[in-house]
Amino acid sequence: MTFKNNNAQEVDEKLAALITNSNAIRAVASAVEGTIGPKGLDIMLVDRFGEVTITNDGVTILKQMDVNHPAAKMLINIAKAQQEEVGDGTTTATIMAGTMVSEGVNQILKGVPVARVIEGIKFGVNKAQEILSANIIPVKDINDPALKSVALIAGREHEDIAELVTKAAKLIGEEKLKEKNFKLKDIVMSRAGAENEVFMGIIIDKEKMNKQMPGEINDVRILLVDDALEPEEIAPEALRTEAGFARHLELKQEFAENIKKIIDLNINLILVDKNVSDEAEELLTDAGVIVIERVSRKDLERVSEHTGARIIKRMGLKKPAQEIQNYIGRADRVYEDEKLEQIRIVGGKGKPIATILVGAATEEIVGERERIAKDAASSLQAAVLFGMVPGGGAVEMAVSRELEREKEKMKSMASYGVECVCTALKRPLAQIVYNAGFNPLEKMEEVSFSQAEKNRSSIGINCESGEVADMVELGVLDPALVKLHAIKAAGEVAEAILRIDTIIKKRDESNPGKPGADTTGGLGDMDF
Fold it and tell me: Which domains does the chain have, with CATH numbers?
């Protein structure tokens, strides 16, 4: 190990780590910045087998990128968290994070202490969230026409998808949308060859297990089995004994009686988590019961909620018929869509649940349309929960202008960190304008002047004409929650990256004695 006392070289090495991380973050941001805005373009992702994904969905691009740099992975993980939390805004968060980190590094290279830059970024992010919150436009109710505008913008101006999502929200109702664990995006499905559709009910993406089972049943009585529908098994060793074989026959008889009990209860639809035995299949087919096997736990829970059915285990089928009655759910109708190979349960007697079915001409397009619909659904729900703000980068620009006034009041070097946040907030508008084919500097200046002159945070740029316009009047609206999280996420990335002082390769702890493994505490021959 070599120790060096050259202060200049020590500083250079520490800055090298910072610059390396900054470049990695910037590279990730550059990969998605061309997709933002109504004129944003698509990215083609190609895997090692030649499979192609074409999309301009930020989180899809980030998830599928081949990234090895640890700093870049940090940014991608925070973007994923943004998607999981609010369902949209990952591109905005990534672009602002890239700018915030780059500006932070520039300030540090000029001699501003890292601690002061981080202090300013923290202050700036918190203040920006406060200012943005003051610009929130509340949603009147579930019939507010602005909700469709939110869905249209998040849905990349796909009118049909915005209509589907808005209709589904109205069917479900505001109360359901505000439930803590409910996510509107989870009711979105897509299928090549399907027609766009919204209906009150559930799609199970499975076929009935026997073609001789009915294709349609009305007045449905539903049983959900979170288990296999087959006799209990006896260990092979036990089967070799007389007592074990007798027990095996007893269990088979008991199982047959349980199936007969189900039939006598007039249950005509059974969803099973695992396998169904041949014996059960034959008996239930003869009785005119539709059986679907290998249904996911998630689908069982959805059907349970919609129909009022309680999920039962195989052992629960031993209960008296009167008790099993309490597990039965009900619906108006169940039928098989043979073309799409799906089972539909309509008119459940439990909680109202809608399904959004998004159609597409080909398999290549269907995945992207589903992603678009999920973004639109997430944004609409976020708007119902926390309100809306002007879109198109207008509100971020307004927040930046107000934050600059706060910065002017500061007398410490933390103001340089606040400047990083101000610059990052301007970036979405600049990139949207650039992607639309206009000069960002010119248009940003026009927006800044118009916002100040008219005292309106909704002034932005019409990407069709390049003229200054009111985003609210144009119907360009974004969920406030998405913007708040994007600012927070960008600040978290910037703070985490700027705090990294040195990059050290960890030793191989799984095999420390392996030739070439670092056995010196992870420092190796690294110079200081």
Answer: 7-137+389-499 (1.10.560.10), 141-188+365-386 (3.30.260), 201-360 (3.50.7.10)
